[in-house]
Amino acid sequence: MDEKHRTIPVIVDKSHLIAIGEQLYSRSIELIREFINNSYDADATEVRVSVDENRIAVWDNGNGMDLEGLTQYFNIGSPEKRIRKNSPRFKRELIGQFGIGKFAALTTGEQFEVATQRGDFAASVIFDKTSWEAEPGQWTLPLNVHEPDPSRGEGTTVIISKLKKNFTSEDLERVITESVPIRAPHFKVILNGKEVRPREFSGHRIPFMEGNDFGLIHGEIYILPESRSSTRDMGVQVKVKGVLVKREMFGMEAWGGDAARIRGEINADFVPITSDRSGFITDSPEYEAFRKTALEVMEEVRRSLKTLSSRKEKNRYRRVLKEALIRIQEALARNPELSPFGPVPIGEEGDGPGEAAVTDEKAVETGEPSVEEVTPGAEDPGGEDKEPRVEEPTVRRLTPRAVIQKIKLGQMGITCCLDHFGADGPECFTENNVVYINQDHPLYRREMRKRDTHVMHIARLLTQEIAIIGQPADPRHAFDLQSRLLKDAFLEDNQKP
Fold first, then answer.
1. What would the DSSP string read from start to end of 164-231?
2. Tens digits of per-residue pLDDT, 157-211?
3. Rounded-to-integer distance, Cα 59 and Cα 189, Å
4. Residues with Cβ within 8 Å of residue 303, at least 6 apart in sequence
């Protein structure tokens, strides 16, 4: 042979294949995912997985394999699935790519068996680790051809036996739920006799569908109730072809405790993944386009989260404000001489607090009060011949987060408005018949942490303003009026007359 054109053989040690397979799967349990996804690629409509202490079996009713297909199955790194993009029957986009799973199986059990049937061909291959490694130069596997079994139908069964590791049904169900396209039509997985169903979340659902130059990005994000939030499995599942690649936070690390309320999945089948399926090719243009869209989606989620949090906060404020107003109404009814509004009866229709409201768009845009203005002193019961004093109402611009509650007290009604006027703004003030309470004031922020102190704080501010409306002779008189109203407002039930 010409010295310039000599050749050398490429030799691969058998043990290296097993080691490579083991490295490609950080957890042995992920092999089950690989076998089920192979069944999905083979157009199976049903996959049955059974697990016990000695073996794992994965049965499917897919297309099965003929002799050529079975040979291809054991072809390491076969390009077939990269060339043939879709399954023949359902045109499913193929998931499997590398064909290393059967070698990784030997790190879980000592023996790996494949039995398949297609048309009039039925055969099985037993891949025994000890026997295979005993002959370093031998790269063939024993093939057993069988008579077709009509009762079996077409399909494939893989069995890992002589297990070296045990798997629980809970762990397997979790892997199947996350890493197998069980939401796909005409496809279901049954684990130890029970169908595995997609995990469902309760909460505020945000579906989305966006496209870019590379393909479609779609999915749904859930904002869980605070009672269901958890730091376990935080992040959004990113799936390629229905299979979980990894969980991503997409900037939620800066959201604080709210990040524990976010769950869901984003599907982007065009994003290239690493050979071990544990991550993405992050320097690819496909991934960059995907991430840009995902960040936009998560920004929308953050806005929705703020809205929901604000809504919950408003509901809490409404309940607290209503309780404070009812207590003050009862105190005024028991002390009619302290009421600047005339007698305040209890129990008559219309006397209780009205429904709490928030500012409407007109109020926010124009600055007009979104509550009915009633001017104190416009009617003077003691002077019928006196012209009513008309005051020009002061317009107060309200924010969209304002909470408003009306209550009828004697001959008129007053309105309490919880709004944001800044930490340096007044604690509370009154304009006409509207009492404004500043939610940004440091004292308010401190007292709102507990419901009881929150109610007491609002009642203190309201009685303060009511005492001022009564135009007391001096500050000491005003303090006395407020003290007496507060005392009666918070009497225990057994102390009430």
1. SS---HHHHHHHHHHHS-TTSTT-EEEETTEEE------SEEEEEEEE-SS-EEEEEEEE--GGG--S
2. 999 998 887 888 888 998 899 889 998 999 999 999 999 998 888 888 999 999 9
3. 10
4. none
Edge-to-edge strand order for the sheet containing 143-146? 143-146, 121-128, 109-118, 155-163, 55-60, 46-51, 188-191, 194-196
Q: Name the residue type at position 146.
A: H
Tell me the backbone φ, ψ of residue 59, rounded to 5 degrees.
-110, 140
Q: Could you give the domains of the chain?
A: 14-196 (3.30.565.10), 204-283 (no CATH), 311-377+396-495 (no CATH)
Both tokens of residue 55?
A: 């073996």
CA 317 – CA 227 distance, rounded (Å): 19
pTM for this predicted structure? 0.60
Asked if residues 454 and 324 have their Cβ atoms less than 8 Å apart, the reply is no
Say if CB 64 and CB 212 are below 8 A apart: no
Bridge partners for 383 per DSSP? none
Encode 417-430: b = buried (16+ Cβ within 10 Å), e = exposed: bbbebeeeeebbbb
Tell the burial category of 489 from Cβ atoms under 10 Å away from its Cβ (0-12, 13-18, 19+). Answer: buried
Two tokens, residue 363: 């109020």
Low-confidence ranges of the chain (pLDDT < 70): 1-5, 9-28, 76-83, 96-104, 106, 276, 342-397, 400, 410-411, 492-497
C-beta of residue 128 within 8 angstroms of C-beta of residue 106 = no
For the stretch 282-331, pLDDT in tens is: 999 999 999 999 999 999 999 888 877 777 788 888 899 999 999 988 88
* Cα radius of gyration (the chain): 36
